[in-house]
Write a structure and sequence with these properties.
- With 749 residues, this protein is an alpha/beta fold.
- The chain has 5 domains: 154 residues, 2-Layer Sandwich (Beta-Lactamase), CATH 3.30.450; 115 residues, Phosphohistidine domain (Glucose Oxidase, domain 1), CATH 3.50.30.10; 105 residues, Orthogonal Bundle (Enzyme I, Chain A, domain 2); 137 residues, Phosphoenolpyruvate-binding domains (TIM Barrel); 158 residues, Alpha-Beta Barrel (TIM Barrel).
- The protein has 27 helices and 22 strands.
- An 8-stranded mixed sheet has the order 7-14-13-9-10-11-12-8. It has an 8-stranded parallel sheet with strand order 21-20-19-18-17-16-15-22.
- Helix 14 links the parallel strand 15 and strand 16.
- Helix 5 crosses helix 9 and helix 26 packs antiparallel against helix 27.
- The protein binds phosphoenolpyruvate and magnesium ion.
- Phosphoenolpyruvate binds next to strand 16 and helix 22.
Amino acid sequence: MTATPNNKTDTRQMLGRLRAVMAEDGAGQDRLDRITQLIAEEMHTEVCSIYLFRDTDTLELCATEGLNPESVHHTRMRLGEGLVGRVAKRGQAINTDDAPGTRGFRYMPETGEEAYSSFLGLPIQRLGETLGVMVVQSRQARVFSEAEVHAVEVVAMVIAEMAELGAFVGEGAAMLARHSQAALFQGAAAQEGAAQGHVWLHEPRVVITNLIAENPHRERERLIEAVEQLRVGVDRMLSSAGTGDSDHMQVLEAYRMFANSKGWMRRMEEDISRGLSAEAAVEKEQSAARARMSQVTDVYLRDRLHDLDDLSNRLLRLLTGQGTETGAEMPADPVLVARNIGPAELLDYGRRLRGVVLEEGSVGSHATIVARALAIPLVIHAKRITTEALNGDQILVDGDRGVVHLRPDESVVSAFRDKMAMRAKAQERYSSIRDKPAETLCGTRIALHMNAGLMADLPSLENSGAEGVGLFRTELQFLIRNHMPKRAELSQLYTRVMEAAKGRRVVFRTLDIGSDKVLPYMTTVDEPNPALGWRAIRVGLDKPGVMRMQLQALVRAAAGRPLSVMFPFVAQREEFAAARAEMDKALERERILGHPLPEKLEVGAMLETPSLAFAPDSFYREVDFLSIGGNDLKQFFFAADRDNELVRRRYDTLNVSFLTFLEGIAERCARLGTPLSFCGEDAGRPVEAACFAAIGFRMLSIRPASIGPVKSILHRTDLGELRAVIHQAREDGAQSVRPTVMEYLRGKL
Ligand code: PEP
Ligand code: MG
């Protein structure tokens, strides 16, 4: 057959024949062979070949019409190698009338392809993931027309879907079954711990089985109907979201824009007219958006592409009638896999989950906070895991290193089990010292309290051996709701917290919102630098309504019991004085109303900005206690964003400058008689905790899971000796005392 320039490729006819092939019985290889044959015929080209990934960076020629049949399953190329490798790497088509003269061309003599001058290669993609490459070639030098490119694009999409559905798996399989190979994901650690379990997809994928349709008219109607429903739904969401300029509104506006976009609709209608079903047309657009998403660096644009992706999912659910409820049964040991998840949804799953793996998320996100409270290992930034994982797949989560193994082989599973066994042993050791005080070798008592914020945290008060709650982050209760809680609701909640504490001290920190903690139902202010912006006590003092309600709820919940309150992010004495005055007003109000006042009231401040370390002595005398919020203090000390992966680990907490700074605060508090604690995450790390104790801290508030490890190291540490080691390292001009301290501890412990 000779190749003639062809604009008459009938995509619908080609898809019809493709469907017939798929309906036939036969092994995977036969199907692929038949497909290449029929595409070459329909496209009037001499060659059609399908290359699929053999492993993550090698492509293999799996079927061909026109090239040397001997080269099937022998010809391989690496990602980026030759024209085929380049199509796969960039996820973009190459269309040329002079293949040998095109940059990147690599001659593969065993295929006999030198005879073909024209080359059209397109990625076989599903939801933005490249599974392989489809190539048509012809002897005659010509560039393939737009219609031809489109035709191959549509066929490649159908092939990707078929691969996803396992159409090429079986005897003589041309490719290994998708979703049956082991896969490793390197994400970021957000909550430590190890978990073994089975995948539970938060939002299972929509499965499309009817890719090709006979009646385009009907498909078009289905699409229009579904889009209409979608528009109505979006409008309803918009009107119930009210006004305001929150991110939520922005997302909904973007939804509306896409739902009314003519270009989006037109492209889908074109694909339907070429023979795709309405679902397949939606998914083809979605796939293109995902492919773009991986290349776009502009955050705003990426967010919008994400919105389009979400919208496509909604549309697919409308078209297929598949909801998020698939009827699948949750495994007994579920590991939740999701693109992202809100804090309330995560709380709904609760402690049933063994672990959580997210494609997105951040260390400071609300979901992370909840995962911490629930002590569930969490890995974030596990790219593509929602496309790879299937419900019920075996999964291992290493929350310490941010690594996830999907469908691991036996050797990985057994190594992981060893690791879990070691952890369990350590846990046993910690439980055996649970009721012992944290007393150092030299006889100094360190008070170990825990950080909390959710009701889910409270059982840890008994289990961890904490002496009390040194930091109760009250904003978490605000973050997990979709409305502002009422005073009575808050007061009931605080009552439950105090009751669960059974007389142990609970330090309630007033609302710390702003920066990374944004309430969905409050108007947000667009700030150039939110971490340095209008947050915490600054909001509380400028708009005192919520703070007043909270203080009143606290006084009421105490109902005559002792009460401890602290204000976050105080940067200067006057802010504390003003907040304290609000507290006095709340007391007065309650007194007038005839409610009992707390038997004892302590009002403290968090030291989270370097400025407060240098506040006048009068401030140190005025506060009932100070608590160092090390997460914030460290970010401001080093000017390094605590949530920015690029810098957050750059400066060591045991850096000499920072330790000297902390030691100065501890000395000052000791001199002025101000009770001091440290409640940032760093105090939960055993080596850091020992060093803090050595430089004068006598109270630490940490995650419940850290109480055992910290207590254990303190039991074996002589603070005088450790202090001398720290001072010596400082004398020696070390940048961080960590290496010296570690060496000392290794010799001792
Ligand atoms: C801190 O900054 O260290 C702190 C305890 O507060 P948060 O982490 O809630 O900002
Ligand atoms: Mg803070």
